[in-house]
Amino acid sequence: MPSTRPGVERATERLAGLVLMIAAAGLVIMTLVIAWQVFARYVLNASPQWSEAAALVVMFHFVLLAAAVGVYEKFHLGFRWLVSRLPLQPGRNLFLFGQVLIMGFGAAMAWNGMALVDYTSSHVIPTLNLSRAAAYWPFVICGGLIMLFALVHCLSLVRNREIDPWS
Fold first, then answer.
1. What integer is the mean pLDDT of 109-138?
2. Helix (H, G, I), strand (E, B), or coil: what is residue 86?
3. How much is the pLDDT for 1?
4. Which stretch of DSSP H or E encloses residue 167?
5. Shortest CA distance to 68 belongs to which of 120, 159, 138, 157?
6. What tens digit of pLDDT does each residue of 124-161 get?
7. CB atoms < 10 A from the CB of 118, how many?
């Protein structure tokens, strides 16, 4: 059965799925790094210096990517309790207002994340020999995804594609 949703919504759904798979892979990678660290420390008696920093950088990436998907899936904080108790049109208006606030948050996150990337690009994480900016790029990416996902929710609501936007 062919989908009746516009191409933008289908593309955004695929993007959210891809981002979630990358986040899940990050969780697996972090688990493997921590497992290696524990094994090396307690069995080999030689803890790798790079493991803690690597796990932290990977964690920044997958947690923030998963948070962006949370905006797409509407798992984020919002006015859900109030919106669900209002009549349809005021509820839709409040939901739209919430999405605009979320877009503003995403923009601030991307903007300030880029400032952190610029500020730390010459700093190096010694145990990884990697620019400190690698730890802050996820804020830029997550902010951009949050803006995109909230914008798609707004467009869907305005085009009356979402009958019950808060569900």
1. 93
2. coil
3. 41
4. none
5. 138
6. 999 898 999 999 999 999 999 999 999 998 888 888 75
7. 11
The two three-digit tokens of residue 61, written as one number: 């990436």
Rounded Cα–Cα distance for residues 101 and 99 (Å): 5
pTM score, whole prediction: 0.84
For the stretch 102-113, what's the b/e string if a residue is b when 16 or more beta carbons lie within 10 angstroms of its beta carbon? bbebbeebbeeb
Q: Is the dihedral of CA 115, 13, 10, 98 positive or negative?
A: negative
Q: 6 pLDDT exceeds 80?
A: no
Q: 């400190």: which residue's tokens?
A: 132
Please check whether residue 54 is in contact with residue 132, taking contact to mean a CB–CB distance below 8 angstroms: no
> Do 34 and 55 touch, CB atoms closer than 8 A?
yes
